């Protein structure tokens, strides 16, 4: 499939299918006083979670606040993301985006669903419904895990500070979104102001995710941890593990989303960098 077709198709919704779908319970997040950061912790590599997150971004319009979107992509990728979101030569910008290093390591963040999410965010930004999309992953050689988590939080806080009264909606891995220490290290969520941060765990009916494991990269099965009904539930008791203020449920069985780059090597390869 030609690259231009691959990246442009998701941004034109079918006539009978609006871009945004209602998300029950979303309004409970921004109706809570003082909230600036909403973290959505996912298992990377499904087709359903990026769609759920898109609908959360759409629903946030009712908050009547500047909406900032945070994506767990390298800060080095920010110029390419900005160009992709702009109204310039989109085909060339898409090619440049997929040439970035992160799209050639297949841990689930480089999926077709993530690229489609960026297409949808481009449409929302052009409608004036978001003010910024920020890449916040900033792990550097020699970093300890704690240093990387702190840099991620700092990038989100800087984005929030650029937009007074802004609401920062963030899609990230569930480890980074947990408010509970893991392996004695503080997580990104713990580095953000606690009273201003809500963290949600994505739940579903189980299924498959395209991500990295000891067996390599590809579709991997996982079990359900709840999530029969689609929507947001703001309650610690709703989360099957500690460290979250609630859950974001797809209400669906998960399907694996393959890498977005054309010509990606078949599983179990975890990187296409050596073939570039």
Structure description:
This protein has 276 residues and is an alpha/beta fold. It has one domain: Rossmann fold (3-Layer(aba) Sandwich), CATH 3.40.50. The chain has nine helices and nine strands. A seven-stranded mixed β-sheet has the order 3-2-4-1-5-9-8, with helices on both faces. A two-stranded antiparallel sheet has the order 6-7. It is globular, with a radius of gyration of 18 Å. The chain starts with a helix and ends in a 27-residue tail after the last strand.
CATH class: Alpha Beta
Specify the helix fraction band: 25-40%
Beta strand %: 15-25%
Count of folded domains: 1
CATH architecture: 3-Layer(aba) Sandwich
Provide a short characterization of the protein structure.
The protein is of the alpha/beta class and 276 residues long. The chain contains 9 helices and 9 strands.
Task: Give descriptors for this structure.
276 residues, alpha/beta, Rossmann fold, seven-stranded mixed β-sheet, two-stranded antiparallel sheet, 29% helix, 20% strand, disordered N terminus
């Amino acid at each position: 499939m030609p690259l231009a077709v691959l990246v442009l198709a998701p941004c034109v919704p079918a006539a009978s299918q609006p871009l945004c779908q209602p998300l029950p319970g979303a309004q409970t997040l921004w109706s809570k006083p003082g909230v600036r950061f909403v973290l959505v912790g996912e298992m990377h590599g499904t087709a359903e979670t990026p769609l759920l997150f898109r609908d959360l971004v759409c629903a946030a319009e009712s908050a009547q606040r500047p909406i900032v979107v945070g994506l767990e992509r390298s800060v080095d990728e920010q110029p390419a993301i900005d160009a992709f979101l702009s109204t310039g030569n989109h085909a060339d910008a898409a090619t440049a985006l997929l040439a970035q290093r992160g799209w050639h390591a297949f841990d689930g963040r480089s999926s077709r669903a993530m690229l489609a999410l960026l297409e949808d965010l481009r449409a929302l930004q052009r409608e004036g419904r978001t003010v910024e999309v920020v890449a916040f992953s900033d792990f550097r050689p020699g970093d300890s895990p704690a240093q990387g988590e702190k840099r991620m939080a700092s990038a989100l806080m800087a984005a929030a500070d650029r937009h007074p009264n802004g609401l920062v909606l963030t899609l990230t891995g569930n480890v980074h979104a947990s408010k509970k220490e893991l392996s004695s290290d503080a997580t990104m969520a713990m580095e953000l102001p606690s009273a201003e941060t809500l963290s949600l765990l994505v739940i579903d009916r189980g299924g498959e995710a395209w991500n990295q494991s000891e067996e390599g990269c590809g579709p991997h099965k996982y079990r359900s941890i709840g999530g029969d009904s689609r929507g947001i539930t703001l309650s610690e008791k709703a989360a099957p593990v500690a460290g979250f203020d609630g859950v974001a449920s797809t209400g669906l069985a998960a399907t694996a989303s393959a890498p977005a780059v054309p010509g990606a090597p078949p599983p179990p390869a975890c990187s296409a960098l050596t073939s570039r």
